[in-house]
Design goal:
By secondary structure, the chain is mostly helical. It is 98% helix and 0% strand.
Length: 134
């Protein structure tokens, strides 16, 4: 291989490398442009993600407040219900005692009525016998 052919070969290789370098440079330029277009979109996404995180924090706070309110309500209801049940139990005991006194009084009245029925029956017979005797 003589010098001229060698130079042509080297020149061809440089031209091929230059073509590839030009293609790489163009690809890099396209990538850079694409990255520049993406940067504002990424910034918007970061802002939106920040807003979502803020919303989540607010929701966590709201849920914590709701849980506290629910616990207070449950405690209040438990206390009131227990007091009402206790009151109903005491009322039932009092009502049972009143019912027992009423039943005892009815038993006494019933006994007196039976006694009076017997006495009336005796008096009626006695009165009837006196009429017959006349």
């Amino acid at each position: 291989m003589d010098n001229e052919k060698f130079q042509e070969l080297v020149l061809e290789q440089f031209q091929a490398i230059a073509g590839e370098l030009k293609a790489l440079t163009e690809g890099q330029r396209i990538l850079t442009e694409g990255q520049q277009k993406l940067e504002p979109k990424v910034d918007k996404l970061e802002t939106r993600i920040g807003n979502i995180e803020e919303g989540q924090n607010e929701m966590k706070s709201d849920i914590a407040e709701l849980n506290k309110g629910q616990l207070r309500l449950e405690t209040r209801m438990e206390n009131e219900v227990i007091e009402k049940i206790r009151g109903l139990y005491e009322f039932r005991e009092v009502q049972t005692e009143v019912n027992e006194r009423i039943l005892a009084a009815l038993d006494r009245i019933e006994a007196k009525i039976e006694s009076h029925d017997i006495q009336i029956s005796i008096l009626d017979k006695t009165k009837s016998n006196k009429r017959k005797a006349k």
